[in-house]
Amino acid sequence: MSEQHPHFVHTLLEYRLQERLDTAIGTVNDLSQEDVLQCDGACLTEIVRQFAVAPPILRPDLMYADERIGESEEILSGRRTGHTNHSFFIPVEREADWLEDVGNQGYPLAFLDRKRARIEIRLVISPEDEEGALKEKLEHRTNLVEQYAASVTERAIEFNKTLAEKMANALNIRKKAIAKAEQELAATALPRVHNPAHAETAIKLERILRGLGAHMTGEASQNVEAQARNVRSFIVHDHDRQSLFELKDYLQNTLRLDEPVVLQQMPGQGRTLIEKFESEAEATELVFVLLTPDDRVADPSDTDTEKRRARQNVIFEMGFFLGKLGRTSGRVLLLYKDSLDIPSDIAGIEYIDITNGVGSAGERIRKELQAFGVLR
């Protein structure tokens, strides 16, 4: 383990890297048998390249300062305190999103401005600070930000090695299995005929590969893409990461919708959790609520029966969006998994069952989105 950056955490980074790895392995699993057998080293390299992470490049040599000097005020009286606020910006090349943990280092190390691809360092100077304090603080904070960025680069390089190894292993496992199966089948010396029952499976597989589009070839599937219109969507979830990954993957790679908002992945920017939620929810047009059995319910009258329910933050956010977008608008889709208690206030509303996976409910989700006008 590296001793250079012991104090940095990469919670959101690890979450996104695991999601990327799962999708990459899924791509190998969805290749046709013919493609698996024909995929050589160059083919594998091209597929791996689609999922490899290009570490963001911090450009402290291009740093600039905000010309505006802010003055701190007391909350109640509004009196100026003598403290001044200063902002400095470091441009980021490549994908700045990989630096999103910069604001989650136990204290505000800095803030990621995704839209402008830059890191913002905010500093405060007090009347008691000595002359030259701002420059000294800036140099110290910049050094920490550079160390943080270096730790992200280090993790990205490590991820790329793991990615290549696991994708190669997944491909080789399938190659060996298919080759062995061909040999065993040939050894039976029986005639081989086409089974019509496979036609439906082939059609489903073709849809999956079309949905993967950009991941496989770098080219978007125009047929599917033309059927979807841009819409800002939001996923309400809690502990069930697998269902979250499946839903996010289905919306982006199969239905070709824009990347949905996942609150945990969005930058904090100094906001409280409720402020962050309200801000991200403001422009939301479509919501998917994952109701999964994360909490155990204690019933004093029935101690022998264990009941489960979605966590309270999920119920709160669901109620918020039902009120904001309207219960009958068709813009809030409720997806549930396994057996769980449903709030009595919304009993009778139709839910989509994803107990057997999001893919098993794909057609139901597609029809709801078609009715709303997202898909044509």
List the helices and strands and how they pair.
Layout: H1 11-29, H2 33-38, H3 41-51, E1 57-58, E2 64-65, E3 70-73, E4 80-93, E5 111-113, E6 118-125, H4 133-187, H5 198-212, H6 214-217, H7 222-225, E7 233-236, H8 241-254, H9 273-281, E8 286-291, E9 295-297, E10 307-309, H10 312-325, E11 332-336, E12 352-353, H11 362-372
Parallel strand pairs: 7-8, 8-11, 11-12
Antiparallel strand pairs: 1-4, 2-4, 3-4, 4-6, 5-6, 9-10
Helix pairs in contact: 1-4, 3-4
Give the key terms.
alpha/beta; Rossmann fold; 6-stranded antiparallel beta sheet
Structure write-up:
The chain is α/β, with parallel strands linked by helices and 376 residues long. The chain has two domains: 1-189, no CATH class; 229-376, Rossmann fold. It is built from eleven helices and twelve strands. It has helices spanning 11-29, 33-38, 41-51, 133-187, 198-212, 214-217, 222-225, 241-254, 273-281, 312-325, 362-372; strands spanning 57-58, 64-65, 70-73, 80-93, 111-113, 118-125, 233-236, 286-291, 295-297, 307-309, 332-336, 352-353. The strands form three sheets. Strands 1, 2, 3, 4, 5 and 6 form a six-stranded antiparallel beta sheet that branches. The chain has a four-stranded parallel beta sheet with strand order 7-8-11-12, with helices on both faces. Strands 9-10 form a two-stranded antiparallel ribbon. α1 (11-29) runs parallel beside α4 (133-187) and α3 packs antiparallel against α4. The longest helix has 55 residues, at 133-187. The model is unreliable at 1-6 and 211-226 (pLDDT under 50).
